[in-house]
Amino acid sequence: MSARWHREPSWDRNRREEPVDGQPGRRRQSSTGNRSITARAFSKDTMSLKRNLSACEENFPTVLPVLLDVVRGPDRLAADEESQDLLREKLRLLQADCDGVKNLFVELSAELVSINSEEKSIYVTFKTFEEIWKFTTYYTIGFLGHCLEDLLLDEKVWLSSLEENVGVGVSIQEEALNLFHKGILMQEGSLFASCSVSQMFDSSTSGADLYLEQGDVAQFEPPFLGSGWTVLCLADGARGTAPKLALEPVIPFHQWFLKSCPESILVGNGKPACDFPLQFARGKCVATQTHDAEGPDELSLAPGDVIIIVGPLLSCFDWFTGKKEATGEVGLVKTSFVEATSETSDSGDVFLDTKEWMFESQKEEEIIKESMDKLKRKSLTDAGQNYKLDTIHYQDSENKTGSSSSPDTKPSPKKLRKYIRRILAPEKYSTSASSVTENEVLEDSRQKTCLPCFTVHPVVEGECNTENFTPFFCFLDGQDYKEEFGFLYSLSSDTLSSTFFEGHSDDDELISFLGVARETARKRRLYWMQTRLCFLLGKLCAGKLKFSQARVYFEESLGIPRETFTDLRLLASIYSNLATIYLLQKNRDSFFGVAERLSAFLLGVPDCLKSLEDNNVLKYMLKKAVLTHNKRAEARACYLLAKHHWMKGEGSQVIPYLERLLVVWDEAQRREDISPSHGYLILGELYRKLHLLHLSTSSARRASLQPSAPLSDCLGSMMLVLSDADGRGGTTDQEASVPPQLAPYLYRSLAVIEAQEEEGGSPHHRALSHQLTLCLCQLFYKYKMIDHAIRRIHSLIKNKWSSREVPISASDRNSALIWLAWLHIENNQPSYALDILNLFLVSMSEHCKSPQKGVVLNMRGVALRCMGDHRRAAESYQAAVDVCREYEDMPNWAVAQANLGLLFLKAGAKGLAWRKLTEALQLFSELSEENHEANFITVLLELGQHYVEQRQLEYGKGCYEWALLLAMKAKLADYQLSATRHLCHLYEHESPDQAQCIIYNQHLIQLLRCSGSRAEEGNALEAISQLYLALGTERAYRAALDYTKSSLMIFIDLGWKEKEAYGWLKAGKIHHLLGQTELVDIYVQAAQDVALSTGHTSFILSLLEAAGDIFWDSCQDYEKAVTFYRDRALPIAVKIGSSPSRLRLCNKLTEVMLALKSYAEAVEFAHTAVDISASAGERLNERVAYHRLAFVYQHLEQSELSEHYYLKALALCPSPLQFDEETLYYVRVYQTLGDIIFHHLKDPFDAAGYYHLALAAAMDLGNKRSQLQLCTRLATIYHNFLVDRELSLFFYQKARSFATELNVKRINISADRQRVSMFQHNTQ
């Protein structure tokens, strides 16, 4: 299959890329059946795309794959494999919870079908061609990838890749999309298409055949009930039929526009009357023939006249606006009357400059002020007002002076002190320029024009008092356009009657008055007054639906003799009203003639757009551009349509034309110094009003990425993203913080400011740079990228704050410096923080005790504590407490007391620590205001941990539970998690309580589920499953199974193969415990398959061994245990040369074979275990192996070998014995040897020797029960076999004494006669 894959356009070029593997048509087979079916929907032969359309011959696809990649850099090249794996992991999560993706694609006018994480693809479908049109537009314009970035990129990516421009690249199989489009159009029954070749049709309206050339656009209807194709020619309205066609549907936007276009505009005048060689011409041209102007709007021409093209000359229109170079006259020129010269250029620029993109204007200073105000509300920091709680934990934190982990973040201490001294100098505080942006008042430059109001006098037949018209005539007089005329032309008939005139009872009286005025002006030959009066009369008549009378007035206004028509706004208004009337009266030819002239004015004089009554002429312009395939004319028409609807306040109608304009602009070879960023911002604002927030953010992203985007647009895109984030989260400015997605916008704005400062920046720019930098640093701090934050603030100190003209208030500067000190503390650089804080104290008066001084003293104490200077830290904390006491600052007082308590706790003064922490808790509990709960909870957790370490578990539990209740009340999710984790640890390890532990683990799972931390949720589910499993009841097993399966689903989504494999295995184990043996093999096999898919041999080995343990531990299905141990795990252990695994497996196999009574195989595995342990040189393993081998021979009743290996095991015991367990081992082995010799080898003498050794070890151990057993055995031997009465009596008495102590009632030392006779026979 041959298919082209088109990648989504990057910000600098609409790129088309082939897949990296060079096989664009090939797709990997999906891992699941439904995904395979979805993928196979696209395996049709795409060569059928080149065939003629037929209702029955083509198989149209039902779903469309959207392929995804992580891309980097301006060229949008594929990122490394690690980034692609992260993308797959994110897609796996979305497979399990795809609501976010569904909602996104609904916004993108598509329906989600499935997600394939392995192929990094999303499958979507469409129901109508409008959905395809919108989706294709979003894809082509570059929104699709930006929309997916919010879902697929981790929050930290936005901060870690500011310079790399990381994003999500999207590619779509264009031919499959086109085929999808064709299929839907065929279903809907009517479509617009261009002819692939020139064709003839049987005419149904005239005798001659209909002929369409290649590229001609017409309307087609598919065959119905055996009939042929029906065609409507848009050029002249002719109809025809044909059995078969060769056509290509027009693009979705053209399809939508042509379908929405009224037939009166759509059909007729479709082809240009001339063949000008340039499609979009600028510069100068030359007249080729003589032409006498037929109206005041035209220019008279003579051959050779040089005409300056005003605006563009579009070859698809009959007229253009020109200016005679010789006389300076401006008017309409027929395109067929001129020819191109060397000074005529075919311009590729739809716009001459960036200002033409501006739909609305706003001063840069206003945007800067608005941006700074919003950023301040979003990024308020409490560093300058609130005390910091000392929760800093370094590794080996004591006696540490601090060193940066990154050389870039370690400034020169000497230079840093120099800069800060200059900033904190007293004269800096008193500078009048300290808050330039805050005190500046911006005024609106737009002056509103007030229209006069004229009195309407009654009209008396036969009388004409011309003095009544004098003020009115004075207002209407003048050949040229005036600003107040513009307001007059734009008024509707109702508004005109009510606001511009007074003294009349109804519109008829006003019309009569204006009619008399018109007649008076005509008689006096006041032509411009007469013209404007005719225009007003026409508007009033049109408002009363007297269209024929209105047309007469408008046509009269054009026919009044005068010189050239210099008031082009009036001329455009007349043409616009005439065009509307001609359409209503179905006078198509007249409409086309007026529309051609008005189009020329609209293209040449942009202000004429304000005179339009409706969009009919603009639609006519767009229709002609589409039918003539003139993309630049299409772009200009879309621009005029978008701006017209924008000025009318019809935002939803702006969107399709502005989208198409941006698509054409992006495809064209445009100039780099012209930026469409404002167009993207307008589009984003319109999306936001329609609650399409993902598209709004994507528009802002595209705006900020434009190379020539001005600072105002960069700030506008940033503000738009903030508004979208608020709308998505349902929060207000004060509630929400700065989202991480804002980082690229902050970075881009800073880059633009730096470029402008190289050319000489303003105080506004420096103030803005300060605020942007602080916001960016707060994002770095929030996501633990403190090095980056420090580096940014140091650059700000060096380059901005050190200058004499610092447009930042002293309080803002001080707060930023205090926060910098805190950043150094958290970054393991307390010495740098101490330098900054000491300079602060030096700059303050010694006897001054301001609240900010208390903040500095408290933070200084934290820095000193981190450096190990506990005495000075305590002094600094106490000074901060004194400041709080003086100002009765209870919240900060509580924090300072808590810091003292934590300091004493670290210093080992536990009594003082307990007292200070208790005082801090009392202060916290008395606070009524909010925003102190975080510190309160932190102190409770620290105190609770102290109690737990002191084994005062009830007090510790109370602190933890109090902290949890506070966190729940304040809705602090992170602190709820922390308190719940402490309680789980308490009830699992410190004060074991399975019921409480399960309860808090369940609460922990709920919190993790709300936080969206799938990885932690999976681990928590696994832990609670183990807790239920330990209860050992059937009900507990079933609960454990449910939690195991839940964790298994998460591990599958995360792609954690090892965790997934063990999850399958654990589920199989629980089914085995529940007796559901038919399911065990299924789960174990699934675990084995997942393990094999990882390719990690050691992991596969451990899992196979664990699978065997399930059957061995259950004391059932020993044969299955043998299968996993011997047939699967052991060969892998041998292959990889893992001696510990081989030894462990051989020992297990020995035990299993003994249980199965396969003694020969047990001996084999036991010998192997001995060999492995001996070669490894580990005495303990070797001793265990010998002992197990001896035990096997004991079962085989090969007593000599059993005795031999028991003695070898004893020989490997350490000497001297160190633990009681080792002595007990001696007792049992020697006793076992005595039993073997006595019972099997029938040697009472050697048996007595082993019993004596066992007795000696038992006496050393003090084990009386073992001594009783051994003395009894020895008494029996000496009494019955060795016949030593004295020893027999001695051991019998010893046995009796032990029996008395142990409360054993009877000792039997007699032997049965058969055994005695056997011994006697052996001795003879």
Could you explain how this protein is built, in words?
The structure is a single chain. It contains 55 helices and 21 strands. Strand 10 and strand 11 (229-233) form a beta hairpin. Mean pLDDT is 82; it is low at 1-57, 396-409, 426-449 and 1313-1324. The longest helix is centred in the last third of the chain and has 21 residues, at 1034-1054. It has 1324 residues and is α+β, with helices and mostly antiparallel strands. 44% of the residues are buried. The strands form four sheets. It has a seven-stranded antiparallel beta sheet. Strands 1, 2, 3, 4, 5 and 6 form a six-stranded antiparallel beta sheet that branches. It is 60% helix and 8% strand. Helix 11 packs across helix 30, helix 19 (547-559) runs antiparallel to helix 20 (568-584) and helix 31 packs antiparallel against helix 32 (830-843). Residues 1-19 have a biased composition (Basic and acidic residues). This is SH3 domain-containing protein. Keywords: SH3 domain. Pfam families: SH3_1. InterPro entries: SH3-like_dom_sf, SH3_domain, SH3TC1/SH3TC2, TPR-like_helical_dom_sf, TPR_rpt.
